[in-house]
């Protein structure tokens, strides 16, 4: 799971770069997902440990942050759906970037929960 966390962090950094470039490199707030991505890379590196307690701690911290990221960007999912039906927003690239971050965060949380359940079953 540590490698998945690092990969998720890289994905968020790529999303931020794509969002920043697509806005003409004028909106630095498009780089916010990169901040999350850096944190996930750090958490993934720290979780890549032979010590199961340390690995468990950092993976739980990373999934908690991903869940918070999902919950804080979930409104963008609704806005993206409205955009697909014709609603116009002043910054459509921002809406799409937040919606993508929301979707990626949800998928990451689901993978982590599945992994946590599998680890619990193996221990029992």
Characteristics of this structure?
124 residues; mainly alpha
Number of strands: 0
Low-confidence stretches: none
Count of discrete alpha- or pi-helical segments spanning 4 or more residues: 4
Radius of gyration based on Cα positions: 16 Å
Tell me the β content.
under 5%
Overall 3D form: elongated
Q: Mean of residue pLDDT?
A: 93
Q: How would you spell out the order of helices and strands?
A: HHHH
Described by strand count, sense and barrel closure, the largest sheet is: none
What does this structure look like?
- This protein is 82% helix and 0% strand.
- By secondary structure, the chain is mainly alpha-helical.
- It has one domain (2-123).
- Helix 1 (2-22) runs antiparallel to helix 4 (92-123) and helix 2 (32-47) runs antiparallel to helix 3 (52-84).
- The chain starts with a helix and ends with a helix.
């Amino acid at each position: 799971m540590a490698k998945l966390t690092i990969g998720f962090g890289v994905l968020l950094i790529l999303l931020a770069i794509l969002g920043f470039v697509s806005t003409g490199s004028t909106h630095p707030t498009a780089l916010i997902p990169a901040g999350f991505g850096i944190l996930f890379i750090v958490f993934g590196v720290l979780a890549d440990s032979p010590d199961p307690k340390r690995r468990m701690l950092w993976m739980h911290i990373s999934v908690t942050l991903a869940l918070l990221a999902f919950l804080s960007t979930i409104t963008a999912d609704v806005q993206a759906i409205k955009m697909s039906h014709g609603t116009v927003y002043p910054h459509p690239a921002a809406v799409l970037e937040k919606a993508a971050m929301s979707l990626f965060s949800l998928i990451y949380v689901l993978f982590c929960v599945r992994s946590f359940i599998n680890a619990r079953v193996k221990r029992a």
